[in-house]
Each structure stands twice: as C-alpha cells, then as structure tokens.
C-alpha cells in the first residue's frame, strides 16, 4: 500500500509591516558591530594621543618636583621635618591601620557641591583640587591674623603634608581602577596632571606662609628644567 503523502502546508504571509523584520534585524546587528568597532578604534586612538601627551608632560612632573624641593629646602629644617611627618603619618595609617577613604569621599562630595553650577568641573575638580589642603591654607591665613604662635605653623604644616598625600593617594587609586584604560593613558596623563597642579598649589601656599619660599622662583626653575630636558632630547633625536 502506497504511503499517503500529506499535503504541504501553505506558507502563512507575515503580518503587514513585519515582512522585512528579519532582514532589518540582521542589518541592525551588522550596523551595531560596525559601530562598536569604530568606537573601539576611536577609544584606542584617543588612548594613544593621551599616552603621547603623558610622555610630553612627564618631564614637567620631574621639573616641578625639583623646583619645589629647591624652594622647600630654604624654609626652617624643623618645619620641613614636620611636613614629612605628616606624609609619613598618613602612609602609616593607610598601610597598617585604616584606609581613610571616607575622608576623601567627603571632600569629593564637597567639591561637587561647590562646582555644581559649572557642570564640566563637577567631574574634574574633585580629582584635581586637594580641597582639605586648600581649606587648611585658608584657615591658617585667618587664624594667623590673631594668633602668632609656633604651634599654629607646626600643626598647619603637618596637616598640609597629611592632606596632600591623602588626596594624591586616593586620586591615583580612583583613576587606576577605571576600566578600558588603553595603555594606561588615562592613569599616566591624569595623575601626572593632578600631581603637577597639587605641587603648584603647595608652592603657592607655602610662598604665602614663608618669606623664604618664592613661587616665582619655583615657576622659573620648573620651566627652565622642563625646557632643558626637551632641548636635550630634541638634539639627541634630530641633530647629528
């Protein structure tokens, strides 16, 4: 007995407006893949640009530190030690006792409030500006009008050392933890810029506290060293 064949089921037409759904989905997928590739290449390109800029400003990091040290050595040796004690105290607390991240975050939020009226600065200012160091300089300026005592200077210098290293440590940690940092460009460029700005603010503040510390000399020495490094590198690379 021959096997009876079942009649073929006629294809049901797709609802109106859905005929090209599958094709459009495939096209959208291809378009999404292309966009993601373009986005990836763009981020890598800007990562390379940031890395090159970081390499350019690294000599300025060095020159700023050398210029600051040159002027800092002019103030009283006991005050220099007090400043270093502030840095060492923070590092000891951070490494062996407690990570004061909550203190950093509160300063972060304070700057966000202060710069809330300038939208571009809301995301940048908390990383750039050491708010506690700035406040300590301001409070010292106010208290010094009525208090002429060595203990005020000592406590101020100690807290400045403590606060500035706190800001640098947690800013570096926050930038380093961000994902998608091609060639670590954001970290190198961002932290270098933060370090330069913080050293400059320290130099400005100390120049107002101590007559021996000259902010003008700091700027001149920093620029001279920076320029000499570039001239030397240029001669080595392009002049034979």
**Biggest sheet descriptor:** none
Number of helical regions? 9
Q: Distance between the terminal alpha carbons, to the nearest Å? A: 99 Å
User: Could you say which overall geometry the principal axes of the C-alpha atoms support?
Assistant: globular
- Average pLDDT, to the nearest integer? 82
Strand segment tally: 0
Give unreliable regions as ranges.
1-6
Q: How would you classify the helix and strand content by structural class?
A: mainly alpha
Order of helices and strands: HHHHHHHHH
**What is the helix fraction of residues, given as a range?**
over 70%
Radius of gyration: 29 Å
Walk me through this protein's architecture.
Helix content is 77%, strand content 0%. The protein is mainly α. α2 (77-97) crosses α7 and α6 runs parallel beside α8 (185-209).
Structure characteristics:
240 residues; mainly alpha; 77% helix
């Amino acid at each position: 007995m021959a096997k009876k064949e079942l009649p073929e089921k006629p294809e049901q037409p797709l609802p109106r407006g859905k005929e090209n759904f599958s094709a459009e989905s495939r096209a959208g997928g291809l378009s999404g893949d292309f966009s993601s590739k373009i986005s990836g290449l763009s981020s890598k390109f800007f990562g390379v640009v940031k890395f090159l800029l970081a390499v350019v400003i690294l000599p300025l990091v060095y020159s700023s530190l050398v210029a600051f040290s040159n002027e800092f050595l002019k103030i009283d040796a006991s005050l220099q030690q007090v400043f270093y004690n502030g840095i060492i105290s923070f590092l000891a607390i951070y490494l062996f006792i407690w990570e004061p991240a909550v203190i950093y975050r509160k300063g972060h939020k304070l700057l966000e409030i202060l710069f809330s009226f300038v939208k571009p600065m809301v995301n940048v200012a908390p990383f750039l500006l050491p708010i506690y160091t700035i406040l300590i300089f301001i409070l010292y300026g106010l208290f010094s009008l009525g208090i002429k005592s060595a203990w005020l200077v000592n406590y101020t210098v100690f807290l400045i050392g403590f606060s500035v290293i706190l800001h640098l440590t947690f800013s570096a940690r926050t930038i380093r933890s961000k994902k998608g940092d091609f060639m670590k460009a954001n970290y190198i460029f961002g932290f270098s810029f933060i370090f330069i700005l913080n050293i400059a603010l320290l130099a400005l503040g100390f120049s107002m506290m101590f007559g021996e510390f000259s902010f003008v000399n700091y700027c001149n020495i920093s620029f001279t060293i920076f320029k000499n490094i570039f001239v030397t590198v240029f001669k080595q690379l392009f002049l034979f």
